[in-house]
Predict the 3D structure of the following.
Amino acid sequence: MSFNINQYFMQQKMMRKVIYSLIPIILASIYFFGWRSLFLMTWITLWGGVTEYIFEKKYGKGKVSEAVVVTAILFTLTLPPSTPYWVGVLGIIFGVIFGKEVFGGFGKNVFNPALVARAFVYVSFPQPLTIEWSHATTSFLGGFTQYMTKGVDTISTATPMLRFRETGELSSYTDLLFGRISGSMGETSAILIILAGIYLIYTKTAAWQTMAGVLSGFIGLSLILRLFGFTAIPNPIFGVLAGGLLFGAVFMATDPISSPKTKEGKWIYGILIGVITVIIRGYALFAGGIMFAILVGNTFAPIIDEGVRYYKKSKKAKKKKVTA
């Protein structure tokens, strides 16, 4: 009796392209923080697949999608390298169930499952998610020769955003670009994320309008607040390169299921996320902000699309009246 993988696995070309774009970022996470990054990702992906399979079997499908693999990888890359295995497992189980399966499974989720998982562990287990960070190694072979790099002793210098909040100091732009900073495993190297974004746009896997909207909203409000003398807001260049903004804009905000479908809606949605990120970073307890901003954006995505369609319909009706 031959084994047919298609009986248990739903192949999705679009999701595979996202995985391809993430490979350099995954390798960079191993280089900067050690092999624990890959082990944690593998363990989380396994549990994510098992969780989806159990629920999809109840729906009469019984297949694990490539989408859940992407969800598990993205979720893992938003975690600190030292995140306990059991915390990661609880996170992905919660994200798959309450971010996806309760809505009916693949293609029906309102919220990005990876961010639902990240928000759950962030709120439920604050110490390993906000305090326990690891140094990024800069040696020739980097983390390829070790299980995990050393932990950061001082919280105020743990990540670029935390350092700015505590001391007002800005990290080196070179370090931000290449990823030689403490932080979540996949959010440190701006160059690799930008290259991944270009690949996703070129292959028409992700909407450039959403990415551009996030950056426009973020940079625009940051500039305005800086001009008015609000010192809690860093300069836009630093803000874009630090705190996971690029990672969120490229991989999370562009999720085709939980984001708007209309072109105009994608712009509005992206700008809304960028603006909310600035507000959260400057005036809330959370140093990053992009995670919660996207979840808020997910809430408004269907309304934005409806508004755009209604506006277009009413405009078309008025045009017909004029020409009649």
